[in-house]
Write the structure tokens for this entry.
Amino acid sequence: MNPIATLHMKNGAKIVLELLPDAAPNTVNSFISVASRGYMDHHAIERIVPGNWIDMSYHAFHHEACKYLIPNEFALHPEIAPLDSHPGAVCMGGYGEAGLASCEFFFPLRDCPEHKGVYPVFGRVLEGMEEIRRLEKVETEPVDFPIPGVEVNRPIEPQILEKVTLELFGETYPEPVKVKDPVLPPCWK
């Protein structure tokens, strides 16, 4: 069985994800590594772009231990065909040639063919799309962002990911392969 991650929101809502190690093994390993250590817990969602996506974080969940990059999944595993990015998918964010974020995942709010092969789909939403759609509609305010051309809006009223729980069904997932000596994105500094 594939691992299950449950995002417990402070408002009582749950978003249940099936993680897809066959589609993005290193990305799943990175997500599990970070989530199992509690680094995503008590975190305010940082970026909502209505009609596009909801980014859970762009500051590596404000933990130094999460400030690492992983190689693009499809460079590590060219034999894996990338999945389509669309509502109901869970994708890992990234920083272009520098690599993928350790744990900065996002929910697409539309079909995003431009993501294919760039931002790996590593999970799918089993329950909680109504909460994702609710988050899309919360009032936001623009934020100055150190990377030109990137729209960042944060919720005016914080939307808190209280904790992430994992069901691994007795499987063990290794630590992720990381980029050696990465150039970290300016938003992490």
Notes: Residues 55 and 106 are 4 Å apart (CA to CA). The first strand starts at residue 4 and ends at 9.
